[in-house]
Structures are given as C-alpha cells and as structure tokens.
C-alpha cells in the first residue's frame, strides 16, 4: 500500500494523527506516530516533513512520524535542506500547546465534588 499508493498512505497517516490528537477538551498531544513498514520516508521525505509541520501547528507541539527508514531519510533530508531545518526550529519555538478550559478532567471532577459537599 505504501509503495503503490503513497498519496493515500500519507493522507491516512495524517488522518490518524489528527484522530489521535482528539478534539475539544479531550484534546491530547501526540509526540510521535510510528509507521511499521519502511519505504515511505525514503521515497517521500519532503511530504512527510511538511505533514509533520502541519500537524505540529495544529496541536501546538512537535509531532514526529517515525519508521524503520526514518532516521537515515530524515538525516539525508536535513543535510540537503538546511533552510527548512532552520525554519522548522523557528516554528517549533513559537508553538504553544492547545489546551481546553480545564487542564484535565480530574481537576474538573474535584471542583464538582467540592461544590456538592459544600466545601
């Protein structure tokens, strides 16, 4: 699938990352997404690099897409695209995680319990 339909594979990976991030108050951060098969990073490193940036902007924190061929392919990409590496570092430095109204549900539950107990 990765070799025969790389665009569909990339779209599926991005969709899965967004699904894992969640929505609204239950929104979570995804630090990495692992692909078990090699080949996509080697053949489409620029597309994956750009996808990582889109997803990082969306969640407000870095997200890396990992695969067996990722370390070598990422290193080769970074070696030939120094300006993109610099822009990525600048972008990541400006990101702030998106959080809901409450930091977590436990804090919200304790407030409700306090109101019910009258404390």
Protein architecture, described:
This protein is mainly α. Helix content is 61%, strand content 5%. It has helices at residues 6-21, 40-43, 45-59, 70-80, 82-94, 105-117, and strands at 32-34, 64-66. A two-stranded parallel ribbon has the order 1-2. Helix 1 packs parallel to helix 3 (45-59). The chain is globular, with a radius of gyration of 18 Å. Residues 101-119 have low confidence and may be disordered.
Structural class: mainly alpha
Largest sheet: 2 strands, parallel
Mean pLDDT: 82
What share of the residues does DSSP label as strand, in percent?
5-15%
**How far apart are the first and last residues' alpha carbons, in Å?**
58 Å
The low-confidence parts are 101-119
Number of helices: 6
Strand order of the largest sheet: 1-2
Order of helices and strands: HEHHEHHH
Give the overall form: globular
Radius of gyration: 18 Å
In short:
The chain is mostly helical. Helices cover 61% and strands 5% of the residues.
Q: What distinguishing features does this structure have?
A:
2 strands; single chain; mainly alpha; 119 residues; 6 helices
Topology:
Blueprint: H1 6-21, E1 32-34, H2 40-43, H3 45-59, E2 64-66, H4 70-80, H5 82-94, H6 105-117
Parallel strand pairs: 1-2
């Amino acid at each position: 699938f990765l070799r025969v339909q790389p665009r569909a594979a990339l779209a599926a990976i991005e969709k899965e990352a967004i699904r894992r991030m969640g929505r609204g108050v239950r929104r979570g951060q995804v630090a990495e997404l692992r692909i078990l098969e090699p080949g996509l990073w080697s053949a489409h490193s620029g597309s994956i690099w750009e996808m990582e940036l889109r997803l990082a902007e969306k969640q407000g924190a870095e997200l890396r897409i990992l695969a067996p061929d990722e370390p070598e392919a990422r290193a080769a990409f970074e070696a030939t695209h120094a300006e993109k590496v610099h822009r990525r570092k600048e972008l990541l430095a400006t990101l702030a995680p998106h959080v809901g109204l409450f930091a977590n549900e436990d804090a919200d539950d304790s407030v409700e319990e306090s109101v019910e107990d009258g404390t």
